[in-house]
Amino acid sequence: MDIVRDRLWIWGHEAGSHDRSWNTPAPSRMTPAEGAFYLGTPNLIMVRYDDKPEPPYVQYAWSFRPLKQFVWSIVGAAGVTSEDEIEQTLLLAKTFPNMTGVMMDDFFRAEPDAGGALTPERLAEIRKRLVVGDKRLDLWVVLYQYQLDFPIRDHLDQWDVITYWTWQAPDLWRLEQDFARLEELTPGKRKILGCYMWDYGNSRPIGTGVMRHQCELALHWLKGGRIEGIIFLASCICDLDIEAVEWTRDWIAKVGDRPIG
Fold first, then answer.
1. pLDDT tens digit string along 26-66?
2. For the residues of 176-222, what is the DSSP string, one character each?
3. Could you state, in order of their start, the residue ranges of all structural domains in the chain?
4. Of 109, 138, 163, 180, which is least packed with CB atoms within 10 Å of its CB?
5. Which of the four CATH numbers 3.90.1720.10, 3.90.420.10, 3.20.20.80, 3.30.1360.70 does domain 4-255 have?
């Protein structure tokens, strides 16, 4: 039987990725693998940020070999993608047996009618390429709370895993209602809840009260089968003595070895 820790993920960026834009308290030097070790999460999602890391990726991903699973982005932060990025990521899957999927971050544009980084037809083409040897990679996507009313239904059939995020921390007090809307929009889709450890929408710390609220809801939904896992964002703030990060680390230590179900 799986324990809670088996379903926990850390969102990884290259060290220092959030130093300049989000009012974080100090520069960070923590790598994604170090972040996973520090929080106690056996799974990692690696997303390129400001074109970092640069290809080829194999040596960078070598530190992910001890992990249970990792996923690598083919659409990076700010919706950036290219054919070369897709090719380089598929090479990773051939090299590392524990790579199980590819992530599309910031897929939908900020405006409701602006569309996505790729058309539904292009997504279907990419899906056909996600068979590597004897395994099929899952196709993951980021969906934000404020995008629930966007015209995205034509894209939804192509994704295997929907990761759901609330950009503005005050909106987390409505997480139960908003997640119910997500379930109505994506019946039958596998879902993972994304939990920010910093209020990026307002460039400020996130309170431990709201951190507890989202984590306890996520744990309840995980045990009830409504979600398959929980992601904590991000590795590049885990060495800054941020209260929400330290609270999360303690929480994982407390609940991580509990059985699911």
1. 999 999 999 999 999 999 999 999 999 999 999 999 999 99
2. HHHHHHHHHHSTT-EEEEEEESSBTTTTBPPPHHHHHHHHHHHHHHH
3. 4-255
4. 180
5. 3.20.20.80
